[in-house]
Amino acid sequence: MKNRDVVVSFLVQEVSAISGVPVDKLSESTPLIGTGTVLNSRGLVELLVALEEFSEEKLQVHFDWTSDSAMSTNRSVYRNVASLADYIASLGPS
Amino acid sequence: MDTVIVTGASRGIGLHCAQQLHAEGYRVVGIARRFDAKPAYEVRTADVSDHSSLTAALRDLERDRSVYALINAAGIASMNLLLTTPSQTIKRIVETNLLGTIYTSQIVSHAFVRRGGGRIINFSSIAVALGLQGESVYVASKAGVEGFTRAFAREMAPHGVIVNAIAPGPIDTNLIANVPLEKLQAIVDRQVIPRKASAEDVWQIVRMLLSPAGAMLSGQVFHVGGA
To answer: Domain spanning B3-223 has what CATH number?
Structure first.
């Protein structure tokens, strides 16, 4: 399985665990911030903590939540599951 | 054993708090640009105004669930009229006092989120409440700290993190070493309790805020001596 697919799977599972929304109701287009998100601010931070550890332990990449590269795109990488998975998959080895 | 991170731990209020915390049995990690003497607790050198330096110094603590509290005591001052203050001095004061507090809080809060709670104590000054002449840049930086404290307390409340600020009046530290005595006395006279506070007075408030007694206090600014 490619890194991106692994990350998508992880994110869907984590969002489900944090929000209580069943996995089959979540997808790559599930918003993580803004209108339609199933996460509150606490849930988003919990997701990012889990993703940081997952990225380093399973993918050997360092995910810096506050890096300029994460925030430099015109639309935040946190906007949905797909955009965040794309970003993690684009990171080089730490 | 709970860990407390103290910035500005090489002198003044930061040093006193670090010593007292160590004596009370906490694991203390002191942060400063340099330490003239090796204290009994762990120290790391970093400039709080330099995010990269700070991140490197604290990296291993971001995932350390023993981290219980952060004391943001690092601070500098330059008592001058704004019209005679060099731009580099202005920049340095704001970077150390305001950005240093924000940077350290951001980095250490990763540990608090993992732990499910924590305490942050920032430092403002009586100069904010009194709007002291000759301290406009210092006041601006510390007013920023107060605003940051109130807003960050709300941001972190869902994670069980309590954020407060202490605003002392004049205390005998290097920070005010060059301020004339009569000017210091004039400030003390404007306090509700017209007595110059000590580092020990401040420590007692820190101690209370770290204790169970501080569990329902967040987003507050505590004026030592009253203002």
So the answer is: 3.40.50.720
